[in-house]
Structure formats: structure tokens, C-alpha cells
Amino acid sequence: MYEVLFSLIAVFFVNTWWIFLTIIFFFLWRSFYLYWIQDKFWSSLEWAALEITLPEEVTKTPKAMETALEAMFALYDAPNFKEKWFDGKVLFHYSFEIVGIGGEGIHIYIILPSTHIQLVRTAIYSQYPEAEIQEVDRGKLKEVGDYIKKVPPDVPNEEYDLWGTDLRLLKPDPYPIRTYTFWQREEFREERSVDPLATIFEFLSSLKEGEHFWIQILARPITNERSWKEDGEKLAAKIMGRKPKTTPGILEPLYISKMPEDIVRVLIEGEPIPERIPGEEEASEATLFKLTPGESETIKAIEENIAKQPYEVNVRFLYIARRDVFFKPQVSSFFGHFSQFGSANLNSLVADSTKTKAFPWFFEKRRLYHKQRKLYRYYIARRFPWHRPPYVLSSAELATIFHFPSYQEVPVPGIRRVEQKKGGPPQFLPVE
Asked: Fewest beta carbons within 10 Å, which of 1, 241, 358, 372?
């Protein structure tokens, strides 16, 4: 019997192999086609680099940056079928970049399509009217950024070394990282600094001459591309012990949709005929009273997080320095400062597999060099990782890791700030 079955299967594959081969080639062709046409589309765009000079006095909390990011959400423009498959159009994104250069100071940039400069200017000035926004560069995406030109384009080389990585979320996306509201609690009020970026800016201001530390936050607004909100609702329901919400079928009101399950239990397993009582799903509500304080806090954080506007995000950093001053413990120091955004019962940002480290194996140095070059190319091209989809952060989470701190909370000398306040024109000017 088995011989006959195997022979039939063999005959089937011999006569239909070309169908499977066609399907495989179709998906390969589609991937290559999309890559080619999207690369052609990116090459046709013009990008701009805006450098932000912070005001001396920032009296607002990171909530102001969250409001600005909600206004910048207008960048969202999902391509339709024709735009995607014939024009290669994809969702635009921002690149928020914090750059520390030893001996020069700290710079803050926003890289964006040149067609959206006015949108970003308006969003930032509405919250930070004393800031200065200057366009410092314009061109192709991988060529934009004056600070990139301050290191050789072939790093790592004999003069410069490089270490870097992408960061990923430790838990599913709906779990939020620790946001700025954590530092606004009462126990932090008496502290000198309650800004979560204080330690990172202190670190960047301590770099020696010849050291470069680049932090890049890629973010693109999304809506229906990801089921982020639905995943968060299911996750909260799971923690509470509720059954996940499902779309009822046509026969659900009559409880007929459960009949096959009941028949199996009665005829095969010998169970008694169950009685379906409307509202039995609510029996799990009693588990709400069994939640621990940590679980209640997690559910509240998830629900607040998914109510915000979502961005697909990737955080990446590079440490580039001359070999005579290259100090690898700087990387560990940065991770220590960035770990403050993590929480045991919520989420954390940790190093991804793209980190420039090669396990002792064959061609170790060559593989390490290849990873360094790839990470550098992806940084200057402002591209999302090649090995996984980007994760989702809310506007509040994004504002926590990228905002404009005040001098009172982050009094480091390396941050460029507006020296004098802008003033309006004097009143009662003569009118011609």
C-alpha cells in the first residue's frame, strides 16, 4: 500500500514540478523587481538636512516634541497599487540624528524629503519658537549630512576604526519603553535633572578629538500597514485573562457555530451535552480582581501607548574614531546610558544581531570588516535593517528618545544653542 502511495506522489511531482518552479521564480522575480524600482524611486528624490540650534531656555517638557511629532505625522502618504508597482513609491521617513564630534560639540539634525521642509519647520516652531532651523545640505539621501563628510568614506581603514549596531525591542511592540512621564513623577522633582537625555548628552560632550558618535533614529508614520493597535488590545486581554475579541459568525447568535465542537466532545470523548448560556464569556471578568499591581500598570501602559500615533522605527548608532584614540568601552558606556529607557515589566531597547562583532570562526577579520561596511552603508543611506521589519514606537516613545532638552536640565557645553532671543519688530514703526 505504501509503495503505491509513494509511486503516486512521485508521479504527481514529476508531472507538476514546473508549477512549483514557476511559483518560486515568480516570488524571486517580484522581490528583485520591487528592489529595483524602489531604488530607482529613491534615487529620483531630493533630501534635505536641517540642523536644529536649541533655545537657551526650554521651559517645555518632551510633551512638546510629542505634539510636534503628531504634526509631522502629515508626512504619511501610503502608495496605491499603481504607485507601488509601477512607480516604486514607498512610505517616506524621517531620520532624526544626534551627532557628537570630539572637540566640536553636539549637533542635532532632521533628514527629510525636501518637499516637506515647511511641514517640519512649522511643527517645530509651533512648540519651540526660539529655536533656529537651518538647512545645511541638500541632495541624494546617502549624500546628505555635512558631518558624514568629516570621516573617510571607506571606514574602517588603517586610520579609523568603527563599531556600531541597530537596536531592537526586547518584547512585542505594544509593550512601551519607559517614556518621559516616568521622569516627571514626584520623586524626581527635587533632582537637578529630570530629562532622560541628560546622561546621553553628557556622554557625547565628553568625546575626545578624533572620536565621532552618531545616533540615528529612522521613523516613518503608519496606520493600517501594521495591526499594532489590535495586537496591543489582544495582549492586554491576555494579561487580564479575557478571551480575545473575535468577529462573530453568521450563526454565532444561535450558538450553532459551536455545535461541531460539542459533537466531538459528546460522541468521542463521552462528555455530557453542554448547555450554552449567553454571557458565559464574561465569567473571566473575575480575573480583573486578581491582577498584581505590576500587571495593572503594564495594562495601563499598553492601552495608553496604543492610543498614540504609531511610527515604524529603527534606532542605530555608530562609534567611529581614529585608531590611536579608539576606545571600545565607550560603546558599553553608551548602552549603560540608553538602558534607562528600559523597564522589567514593560520593554527595552537592546543590541541587535547587526552589531559589528564576529565570532571566532573562519575568515573572522574579513567577516567583521564586511559587517562594519554594511552597517556604515545602511547608516549613510538611512535604510531600515535588512534582516527584520522595523518595530513600532508611539509618538510619546519617540519623543522620549528625541527631544530638545533645556540648559537648566542638561547644562553641557557642547550643545549648540541660540545666543540671543529672537525679537519681533519694534512697535509704532512709521508706515509709508
From this structure: 1
User: What does R_g of the chain's alpha carbons equal in angstroms?
Assistant: 27
Query: Is residue 245 domain-resident?
Result: no
Q: At what angle do helices 198-205 and 329-338 cross, to 10 degrees?
A: 160
Task: Write the pLDDT tens digit of every residue in 112-152.
Answer: 999 999 999 999 999 999 899 999 999 988 889 889 999 99
- Judging by DSSP bridges, how do beta strands 47-53 and 105-113 pair with one another? antiparallel
Quick: pLDDT tens for 194-221: 788 888 998 999 899 999 999 999 999 9
Output the pTM of the full model.
0.83
Q: How many CB atoms lie within 10 A of CB 300?
A: 11
Of 376, 315, 311, 363, nearest in space to 154 by CA: 376
CA triplet 34, 398, 306: central angle to 5 degrees?
85
Residue-number span of the structural domain to which 344 is assigned: 44-230+298-401
Work out how many domains the chain is built from and give that number.
Answer: 1
Residue 58 domain flag? yes
